[in-house]
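Issue 218. Parser rejects a valid record. Input:
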Amino acid sequence: MLRELKMLYNTPPNLSELPIYQKAVEIFALSQNISTYLCEDLSGLREDGSEDYNIYFSGDIVQQSVSLAPEIANAELERFSEKKYKHIASLKRLTNMLYKNSYRLERSNSNGKDFLPILRSELRKFKKLQSSWLLTL
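Output the parser choked on:
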């Protein structure tokens, strides 16, 4: 999976060795698996014929997590500090939105919500890596 992401985002090999980059890839894989599991439970219609709005949050966690690794790569490769900080701010925003959406999904009517605390635990680890990584930029 790491090789596919490298090819997809055309990242240099030394970036994939960064712990924060590896954690971003892990979070992407985890959120994708959680979303797939949740979609099976949430895709059916309710008794009144309406759809469960929580299904959109399951897609959001995938969209947000897929953007983590490219933002890290962009921040690492950017030469100008102003643009570098824009990528860093975007990375922080994505992380916070992932965290919020995991709480929203936990209120859903699904068996897969038991996996969301694992995702939040990985996001907390990611935030710690993020703060130490910022010191190296």
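Fixed in the parser; the record now loads. The chain has one domain: 18-136.
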